[in-house]
Design goal:
Elements lengths: L1 E18 L5 E20 L3 E5 L11 H13 L5 E6 L10 H16 L6 H11 L3 H6 L2 E6 L3 E4 L7 E6 L6 H11 L6 H10 L9 E2 H6 L2 H12 L4 E4 L6 E5 L2 H11 L5 E6 L2
Parallel strand pairs: 1-8, 3-4
Antiparallel strand pairs: 1-2, 2-4, 2-5, 5-6, 7-10, 7-11, 9-10
């Protein structure tokens, strides 16, 4: 059985640039991998079999790992199957890309398991059919992602940060978040351009975080977590993706640990990790 970590992601910026005829929104977003991860195990089997101890995780075609495996076998023509065991550490409906990273890890494992010798580009093509954030999760790191996530440009020069992830006792579904943006009818904050301009100009880009979905949702609990993180020494704080998880960026590990200690009793998920 082969094993691979599936790293979570945060959105340092998230701009909604348009809405397509098929209902999908196009984005311009800076994504960053963090060290929090699920663990994915895979071995050859008959059919596609999923196992996970988390009762909230579907084990059929609704699961992105199942979808990714089906697309892999269709693309390669391999007459095989796989048993996938998912160890969940990334919370659902958090905006951390847990399902997407699991699917990406599944594709990487299948490529190795069956010696398919697909390039990263080939895997990213399959990933794009699986879900919006899956292509980014194939390589991870830091990148600007455009379109529905399939157009990626890697970013260098970002300083590492400690990341405190805080999720309130509720989740936000992706459709719910985008519906809030559409209902509000607001223009994009266009934060990605400001973030990249700061990075290129030698300024601190972390002072230019933005998220159109957070601005549209206007949730008081999310705003409260942001304020708490800032008051406890976070350099910047923001909701990631479609939420509901909020992250705080810290230069100093001791401050990050202190913030975690003070917040962990108030929130069901309070995890310290780092950018990778």
């Amino acid at each position: 059985m082969l094993t691979k970590p599936a790293y979570a992601k945060i959105n340092l910026t998230l701009d909604i640039t348009s809405k397509r005829a098929d209902g999908y929104h196009t984005l311009e977003t800076v994504m960053q991998s963090v060290s929090l991860c699920d663990i994915i195990h895979a071995e050859k089997a008959e059919g596609i079999i999923l196992e996970c101890r988390d009762p909230k995780i579907p084990l059929d075609e609704k699961n992105t790992c199942h979808r990714a495996a089906g697309l892999f076998f269709k693309r390669t023509g391999i007459l095989g199957g796989v048993r996938i065991v998912i160890e969940k550490n990334i919370p659902s409906e958090a905006g951390l890309g847990g399902g997407s990273s699991d699917a990406a890890a599944t594709l990487l494992l299948l490529n190795e398991l069956y010696d398919a010798r697909l390039s990263y580009y080939d895997l990213e093509e399959i990933a794009a059919l699986t879900g919006a954030d899956v292509p980014f999760c194939i390589r991870g790191g830091a990148a600007v992602c455009r379109g529905i996530g399939e157009k990626m440009t890697g970013i260098g020069g970002l300083e590492k940060r400690h990341v405190l992830l805080v999720k309130p006792g509720f989740g936000i579904s992706t459709p719910e978040a985008y519906a809030a943006f559409d209902k509000k009818g607001a223009e994009s904050l266009s934060g990605t351009k400001k973030f990249l301009s700061a990075l290129e100009g030698g300024e601190n880009p972390y002072l230019y975080l933005s998220n159109d979905l957070e601005a549209a949702i206007e949730n008081t609990d999310i705003a409260k977590i942001r304020m708490e993180l800032s008051e406890l020494g976070a350099e910047a704080a923001q909701m990631t993706g479609s939420g509901s998880c909020v992250f705080g960026l810290f230069e100093d590990l001791e401050r990050a640990l202190r913030a975690q200690t003070l917040m962990r009793d108030s929130y069901p998920f309070c995890e310290l990790c780092e950018t990778i």
